[in-house]
Amino acid sequence: MSENDLLLGIDLGTSRTAVVSSRGLRTLFDSAVAYPKDLIGVKLLGAAHVVGSEALGKSFLEVDYPLKDGVLKQSGDMQQDAARKLIAYAVQEGQPREGDRICAIIGVPANASRFNKSLLLELAQECLDLALVVSEPFLVAYQQERLVNSIVIDIGAGTTDLCGLKGRLPQPEDQSSNTKAGDYIDQLLMSAMQLRYPGLQLTKALCKQIKEQHGFVGPAEGPIEVSLREEGRPVVVDVTEELGYACQAIVPEIIEAIEYLVARFDPSDQETVLQNIILAGGGSRIRGLDRLIAAKLKPFGEVRVSRVEDIAYAGAEGALKLASELPPDYWGQLGESMLGA
User: Fold this and answer.
1) How do residues 96-110 score in pLDDT, each as one tens digit?
2) Residue 223, by phi and psi: left (phi above 0), alpha (psi -120 to 50) or beta?
3) Would the CA dihedral through 168, 173, 174, 179 be positive or negative?
4) Domain that holds residue 18
5) Are residues 15 and 96 both part of a single domain?
6) The overall pTM is greater than 0.85
7) Rounded to whole angstroms, what are the CA distances from 288 to 187, 209, 221, 285?
Protein backbone atom coordinates (compact mmCIF):
# COMPACT_ATOMS: atom_id res chain seq x y z
CA MET A 1 0.00 0.00 0.00
CA SER A 2 1.40 3.39 -1.03
CA GLU A 3 0.70 6.77 0.58
CA ASN A 4 -1.52 7.57 -2.41
CA ASP A 5 -3.76 4.56 -1.75
CA LEU A 6 -6.93 5.45 0.14
CA LEU A 7 -8.61 2.29 1.44
CA LEU A 8 -12.30 2.39 2.29
CA GLY A 9 -14.55 -0.11 4.02
CA ILE A 10 -18.17 0.53 3.05
CA ASP A 11 -21.18 -1.23 4.57
CA LEU A 12 -23.87 -0.19 2.10
CA GLY A 13 -27.12 -0.73 3.98
CA THR A 14 -30.79 -0.41 3.10
CA SER A 15 -31.33 2.04 5.95
CA ARG A 16 -27.86 3.32 6.88
CA THR A 17 -24.40 3.26 5.34
CA ALA A 18 -21.17 3.09 7.33
CA VAL A 19 -17.80 4.19 5.92
CA VAL A 20 -14.36 3.82 7.49
CA SER A 21 -11.04 4.81 5.91
CA SER A 22 -7.39 3.89 6.20
CA ARG A 23 -6.79 7.44 7.45
CA GLY A 24 -8.91 6.95 10.55
CA LEU A 25 -12.24 8.42 9.42
CA ARG A 26 -15.52 6.83 10.52
CA THR A 27 -18.95 8.07 9.43
CA LEU A 28 -22.51 6.76 9.45
CA PHE A 29 -25.38 8.24 7.43
CA ASP A 30 -28.87 7.42 6.20
CA SER A 31 -28.94 5.61 2.85
CA ALA A 32 -31.34 8.20 1.48
CA VAL A 33 -31.26 10.43 -1.60
CA ALA A 34 -33.81 13.24 -1.90
CA TYR A 35 -34.88 15.53 -4.73
CA PRO A 36 -36.95 18.75 -4.56
CA LYS A 37 -40.59 18.20 -5.51
CA ASP A 38 -40.80 21.50 -7.42
CA LEU A 39 -39.12 24.87 -7.91
CA ILE A 40 -39.95 25.95 -4.37
CA GLY A 41 -38.13 22.89 -3.12
CA VAL A 42 -35.09 23.79 -5.21
CA LYS A 43 -35.08 27.27 -3.67
CA LEU A 44 -35.43 25.93 -0.11
CA LEU A 45 -32.79 23.24 -0.57
CA GLY A 46 -30.41 25.31 -2.68
CA ALA A 47 -29.34 22.19 -4.59
CA ALA A 48 -30.62 19.63 -7.08
CA HIS A 49 -30.40 16.75 -4.59
CA VAL A 50 -29.19 15.86 -1.10
CA VAL A 51 -27.88 12.63 0.44
CA GLY A 52 -27.93 11.34 4.02
CA SER A 53 -29.67 12.70 7.09
CA GLU A 54 -30.34 16.06 5.39
CA ALA A 55 -32.65 14.18 3.00
CA LEU A 56 -35.08 13.31 5.81
CA GLY A 57 -37.81 15.27 7.57
CA LYS A 58 -38.40 17.88 4.87
CA SER A 59 -41.86 17.94 3.30
CA PHE A 60 -40.62 19.66 0.14
CA LEU A 61 -38.35 16.72 -0.77
CA GLU A 62 -39.07 13.39 -2.46
CA VAL A 63 -36.98 10.77 -0.68
CA ASP A 64 -35.63 7.65 -2.37
CA TYR A 65 -33.84 4.76 -0.69
CA PRO A 66 -31.84 3.23 -3.58
CA LEU A 67 -31.40 -0.08 -1.80
CA LYS A 68 -34.29 -2.51 -1.38
CA ASP A 69 -33.93 -5.72 0.62
CA GLY A 70 -30.24 -4.94 0.93
CA VAL A 71 -29.51 -4.72 -2.81
CA LEU A 72 -29.73 -2.05 -5.48
CA LYS A 73 -33.13 -1.51 -7.03
CA GLN A 74 -33.09 -2.65 -10.65
CA SER A 75 -36.04 -0.68 -12.04
CA GLY A 76 -35.74 2.72 -13.65
CA ASP A 77 -33.05 5.25 -14.44
CA MET A 78 -33.99 7.41 -11.46
CA GLN A 79 -33.30 4.57 -8.98
CA GLN A 80 -29.92 3.90 -10.57
CA ASP A 81 -29.13 7.62 -10.52
CA ALA A 82 -29.98 7.71 -6.80
CA ALA A 83 -27.77 4.66 -6.20
CA ARG A 84 -24.92 6.34 -8.10
CA LYS A 85 -25.27 9.45 -5.95
CA LEU A 86 -25.34 7.35 -2.76
CA ILE A 87 -22.14 5.52 -3.70
CA ALA A 88 -20.41 8.77 -4.69
CA TYR A 89 -21.45 10.35 -1.39
CA ALA A 90 -20.05 7.37 0.55
CA VAL A 91 -16.73 7.72 -1.25
CA GLN A 92 -16.59 11.49 -0.64
CA GLU A 93 -17.27 10.87 3.05
CA GLY A 94 -13.91 9.06 3.01
CA GLN A 95 -12.32 12.45 2.20
CA PRO A 96 -10.12 11.46 -0.74
CA ARG A 97 -7.27 13.74 -1.75
CA GLU A 98 -6.25 14.73 -5.24
CA GLY A 99 -4.09 12.01 -6.75
CA ASP A 100 -5.38 9.23 -4.49
CA ARG A 101 -5.98 5.75 -5.82
CA ILE A 102 -9.29 4.97 -4.11
CA CYS A 103 -9.78 1.28 -3.26
CA ALA A 104 -12.98 0.14 -1.55
CA ILE A 105 -14.38 -3.12 -0.25
CA ILE A 106 -18.18 -2.94 -0.21
CA GLY A 107 -20.41 -5.21 1.88
CA VAL A 108 -23.43 -6.79 0.19
CA PRO A 109 -26.02 -9.31 1.46
CA ALA A 110 -25.10 -12.97 1.61
CA ASN A 111 -26.00 -14.68 -1.69
CA ALA A 112 -26.53 -11.36 -3.51
CA SER A 113 -26.94 -12.17 -7.19
CA ARG A 114 -24.09 -11.87 -9.66
CA PHE A 115 -26.22 -9.38 -11.60
CA ASN A 116 -26.63 -7.14 -8.57
CA LYS A 117 -22.94 -7.28 -7.73
CA SER A 118 -22.09 -6.38 -11.32
CA LEU A 119 -24.57 -3.49 -11.26
CA LEU A 120 -23.07 -2.16 -8.04
CA LEU A 121 -19.56 -2.31 -9.46
CA GLU A 122 -20.68 -0.68 -12.69
CA LEU A 123 -22.09 2.29 -10.76
CA ALA A 124 -18.96 2.44 -8.62
CA GLN A 125 -16.65 2.85 -11.61
CA GLU A 126 -17.24 6.61 -11.74
CA CYS A 127 -15.72 7.27 -8.31
CA LEU A 128 -13.49 4.30 -7.46
CA ASP A 129 -10.27 3.00 -8.95
CA LEU A 130 -10.62 -0.47 -7.47
CA ALA A 131 -13.58 -2.10 -5.78
CA LEU A 132 -14.55 -5.49 -4.40
CA VAL A 133 -17.94 -6.66 -3.16
CA VAL A 134 -17.99 -9.16 -0.28
CA SER A 135 -20.67 -10.82 1.83
CA GLU A 136 -21.58 -8.59 4.81
CA PRO A 137 -21.67 -11.37 7.45
CA PHE A 138 -18.27 -12.57 6.23
CA LEU A 139 -16.90 -9.06 6.78
CA VAL A 140 -18.27 -9.07 10.33
CA ALA A 141 -16.56 -12.42 10.95
CA TYR A 142 -13.33 -11.02 9.53
CA GLN A 143 -13.50 -8.03 11.85
CA GLN A 144 -14.17 -10.31 14.82
CA GLU A 145 -11.48 -12.80 13.72
CA ARG A 146 -14.02 -15.62 13.99
CA LEU A 147 -13.27 -17.28 10.65
CA VAL A 148 -13.39 -20.91 11.80
CA ASN A 149 -16.33 -22.83 13.29
CA SER A 150 -18.68 -19.91 13.83
CA ILE A 151 -21.94 -18.50 12.47
CA VAL A 152 -22.60 -14.79 11.98
CA ILE A 153 -26.19 -13.48 11.91
CA ASP A 154 -26.31 -9.97 10.44
CA ILE A 155 -29.79 -8.43 10.86
CA GLY A 156 -30.09 -5.29 8.78
CA ALA A 157 -33.05 -3.28 7.56
CA GLY A 158 -33.57 -5.11 4.27
CA THR A 159 -32.17 -8.59 4.93
CA THR A 160 -31.14 -11.02 7.62
CA ASP A 161 -27.90 -12.64 6.43
CA LEU A 162 -26.22 -15.68 7.93
CA CYS A 163 -22.80 -17.10 7.16
CA GLY A 164 -21.11 -20.25 8.40
CA LEU A 165 -17.33 -19.80 8.71
CA LYS A 166 -15.16 -22.85 8.00
CA GLY A 167 -11.70 -21.36 7.60
CA ARG A 168 -12.22 -20.71 3.89
CA LEU A 169 -14.04 -18.25 1.69
CA PRO A 170 -17.77 -18.90 2.18
CA GLN A 171 -19.49 -20.88 -0.56
CA PRO A 172 -23.18 -20.46 -1.49
CA GLU A 173 -24.12 -23.41 0.73
CA ASP A 174 -22.39 -21.68 3.67
CA GLN A 175 -24.69 -18.64 3.47
CA SER A 176 -28.35 -17.79 3.82
CA SER A 177 -30.33 -14.59 3.30
CA ASN A 178 -33.99 -13.63 3.77
CA THR A 179 -36.00 -10.41 3.77
CA LYS A 180 -37.52 -10.82 7.24
CA ALA A 181 -35.44 -8.10 8.84
CA GLY A 182 -35.83 -4.57 10.20
CA ASP A 183 -38.16 -3.20 7.51
CA TYR A 184 -40.32 -6.30 7.84
CA ILE A 185 -40.66 -5.71 11.60
CA ASP A 186 -41.57 -2.05 11.00
CA GLN A 187 -44.34 -2.99 8.58
CA LEU A 188 -45.75 -5.68 10.87
CA LEU A 189 -45.68 -3.30 13.83
CA MET A 190 -47.49 -0.58 11.88
CA SER A 191 -50.19 -3.00 10.68
CA ALA A 192 -50.74 -4.40 14.18
CA MET A 193 -50.95 -0.93 15.75
CA GLN A 194 -53.38 0.30 13.08
CA LEU A 195 -55.57 -2.72 13.75
CA ARG A 196 -55.70 -2.03 17.49
CA TYR A 197 -55.77 1.77 17.29
CA PRO A 198 -57.49 2.69 13.99
CA GLY A 199 -57.26 6.45 14.55
CA LEU A 200 -53.50 6.60 15.12
CA GLN A 201 -51.47 8.67 12.68
CA LEU A 202 -48.57 6.33 11.93
CA THR A 203 -45.64 6.30 9.56
CA LYS A 204 -42.97 3.66 9.01
CA ALA A 205 -40.43 6.11 10.39
CA LEU A 206 -42.35 6.34 13.68
CA CYS A 207 -42.64 2.55 13.89
CA LYS A 208 -38.92 2.20 13.17
CA GLN A 209 -38.20 4.61 16.01
CA ILE A 210 -40.39 2.61 18.42
CA LYS A 211 -38.66 -0.62 17.41
CA GLU A 212 -35.17 0.83 17.81
CA GLN A 213 -35.95 2.24 21.26
CA HIS A 214 -38.03 -0.57 22.73
CA GLY A 215 -37.71 -3.70 20.54
CA PHE A 216 -37.75 -7.02 22.45
CA VAL A 217 -38.55 -10.71 22.18
CA GLY A 218 -39.55 -13.11 24.91
CA PRO A 219 -41.23 -11.92 28.11
CA ALA A 220 -41.66 -8.15 28.31
CA GLU A 221 -39.89 -6.42 31.19
CA GLY A 222 -42.91 -4.17 31.62
CA PRO A 223 -45.52 -2.23 29.64
CA ILE A 224 -44.23 -0.21 26.70
CA GLU A 225 -46.15 3.02 26.25
CA VAL A 226 -45.40 5.60 23.57
CA SER A 227 -46.67 9.11 22.81
CA LEU A 228 -48.30 9.42 19.39
CA ARG A 229 -51.06 11.38 17.65
CA GLU A 230 -54.65 10.29 17.07
CA GLU A 231 -56.50 12.48 14.57
CA GLY A 232 -54.20 15.35 15.52
CA ARG A 233 -54.49 14.94 19.29
CA PRO A 234 -51.65 13.65 21.50
CA VAL A 235 -52.29 10.20 23.01
CA VAL A 236 -50.30 7.62 24.96
CA VAL A 237 -50.80 4.03 23.80
CA ASP A 238 -49.56 0.64 24.99
CA VAL A 239 -47.71 -1.19 22.20
CA THR A 240 -46.19 -4.04 24.22
CA GLU A 241 -48.10 -6.87 22.58
CA GLU A 242 -47.77 -5.52 19.05
CA LEU A 243 -44.03 -4.84 19.37
CA GLY A 244 -43.24 -8.25 20.82
CA TYR A 245 -45.25 -9.94 18.06
CA ALA A 246 -43.50 -7.96 15.29
CA CYS A 247 -39.96 -8.50 16.61
CA GLN A 248 -40.46 -12.22 17.22
CA ALA A 249 -41.69 -12.71 13.64
CA ILE A 250 -38.12 -12.83 12.29
CA VAL A 251 -36.98 -15.57 14.67
CA PRO A 252 -38.35 -18.75 12.96
CA GLU A 253 -36.38 -18.09 9.73
CA ILE A 254 -33.23 -17.38 11.74
CA ILE A 255 -33.54 -20.67 13.63
CA GLU A 256 -34.24 -22.60 10.43
CA ALA A 257 -31.19 -21.07 8.74
CA ILE A 258 -28.92 -21.82 11.74
CA GLU A 259 -30.07 -25.44 11.77
CA TYR A 260 -29.33 -25.68 8.04
CA LEU A 261 -25.84 -24.20 8.41
CA VAL A 262 -24.88 -26.20 11.51
CA ALA A 263 -25.74 -29.47 9.75
CA ARG A 264 -23.25 -28.59 7.00
CA PHE A 265 -20.27 -28.39 9.33
CA ASP A 266 -18.19 -31.46 10.06
CA PRO A 267 -19.99 -33.37 12.87
CA SER A 268 -16.90 -33.13 15.08
CA ASP A 269 -17.03 -29.30 14.81
CA GLN A 270 -20.75 -28.74 15.37
CA GLU A 271 -20.51 -28.51 19.15
CA THR A 272 -17.90 -25.74 18.77
CA VAL A 273 -20.01 -23.94 16.16
CA LEU A 274 -22.97 -23.78 18.53
CA GLN A 275 -20.72 -22.01 21.05
CA ASN A 276 -19.79 -19.36 18.47
CA ILE A 277 -22.98 -17.76 17.16
CA ILE A 278 -22.55 -14.01 16.67
CA LEU A 279 -25.29 -11.40 16.26
CA ALA A 280 -24.59 -8.24 14.25
CA GLY A 281 -26.48 -5.46 12.49
CA GLY A 282 -29.10 -3.08 13.83
CA GLY A 283 -31.53 -5.90 14.56
CA SER A 284 -29.10 -7.41 17.07
CA ARG A 285 -30.16 -4.62 19.45
CA ILE A 286 -33.53 -6.32 19.99
CA ARG A 287 -33.55 -7.19 23.69
CA GLY A 288 -33.67 -10.87 24.51
CA LEU A 289 -32.86 -12.03 20.97
CA ASP A 290 -29.63 -13.77 22.02
CA ARG A 291 -31.41 -15.66 24.81
CA LEU A 292 -34.34 -16.67 22.63
CA ILE A 293 -32.11 -18.03 19.86
CA ALA A 294 -30.14 -20.06 22.41
CA ALA A 295 -33.36 -21.42 23.92
CA LYS A 296 -34.77 -22.40 20.51
CA LEU A 297 -31.56 -24.29 19.70
CA LYS A 298 -31.45 -26.16 23.02
CA PRO A 299 -32.18 -29.56 21.39
CA PHE A 300 -28.81 -29.25 19.60
CA GLY A 301 -26.86 -28.95 22.86
CA GLU A 302 -25.24 -26.09 24.71
CA VAL A 303 -25.49 -22.84 22.72
CA ARG A 304 -23.75 -19.50 23.21
CA VAL A 305 -24.94 -16.41 21.34
CA SER A 306 -23.01 -13.14 21.59
CA ARG A 307 -23.30 -9.67 20.04
CA VAL A 308 -20.62 -7.60 18.36
CA GLU A 309 -19.74 -4.55 20.42
CA ASP A 310 -19.65 -2.02 17.58
CA ILE A 311 -22.96 -2.73 15.87
CA ALA A 312 -22.88 0.28 13.55
CA TYR A 313 -19.37 -0.20 12.18
CA ALA A 314 -18.51 -3.92 12.47
CA GLY A 315 -19.14 -4.64 8.77
CA ALA A 316 -17.31 -1.56 7.51
CA GLU A 317 -14.40 -2.18 9.90
CA GLY A 318 -14.20 -5.75 8.62
CA ALA A 319 -14.10 -4.45 5.05
CA LEU A 320 -11.28 -2.04 5.89
CA LYS A 321 -9.36 -4.72 7.80
CA LEU A 322 -9.63 -7.05 4.78
CA ALA A 323 -8.59 -4.24 2.42
CA SER A 324 -5.58 -3.45 4.62
CA GLU A 325 -4.42 -7.06 4.86
CA LEU A 326 -5.08 -8.11 1.28
CA PRO A 327 -2.86 -6.48 -1.39
CA PRO A 328 -5.19 -4.77 -3.91
CA ASP A 329 -3.56 -6.67 -6.78
CA TYR A 330 -5.01 -9.87 -5.32
CA TRP A 331 -8.57 -8.63 -4.84
CA GLY A 332 -9.78 -10.33 -8.00
CA GLN A 333 -9.08 -13.72 -6.41
CA LEU A 334 -11.55 -13.04 -3.59
CA GLY A 335 -14.76 -12.32 -5.50
CA GLU A 336 -16.49 -9.86 -7.79
CA SER A 337 -14.10 -6.97 -8.37
CA MET A 338 -13.75 -3.90 -10.55
CA LEU A 339 -10.38 -2.72 -11.77
CA GLY A 340 -9.91 0.88 -12.81
CA ALA A 341 -8.73 1.76 -16.29
Assistant:
1) 999 999 999 998 887
2) beta
3) positive
4) 5-139+313-339
5) yes
6) yes
7) 21, 18, 10, 9
